[in-house]
Give the backbone structure.
Amino acid sequence: MRPEISRKEFAGNSSATDMGKKSRRVSTSGGESSLDTTPFGDLNIEGLPQQSVPGPKSAPVNRTKEGKNRGRVDVVRQRSGGGGGWVTIAKNFVGISVEEKTALKKSIQKRCGVGGSLKGGQIEIQGDKREEVKSVLEKAGFRVVFAGG
């Protein structure tokens, strides 16, 4: 009959490690370990140019001049060429760049929830969205006039 051995006695028994089982525990006693050292500890930074840390970028300047009269813009409803559906066209912009027209087109598209394009200096919005187009253009400072059909 074998004598009873408790787990603590068995774990402390050196014969358990002699049987081919290696202890996989990492020592946590405060000695020097490879985790305490950094690979950059021995680097010398003298002689290197100083680099400033970039700060937050400033917000882009909104080019739309709210409250100013920026001219008359005609908003027209027409039948589209291929499918026969309605298209809302904003035309006769005076003195604004293509980039600003593109920004206006994107804001109108978001407001209306439809597609659109910029063709020949005119903003074309899918569907009969004259009222929504008018409100966006008026906020941008244009005087909107409904023209045509």
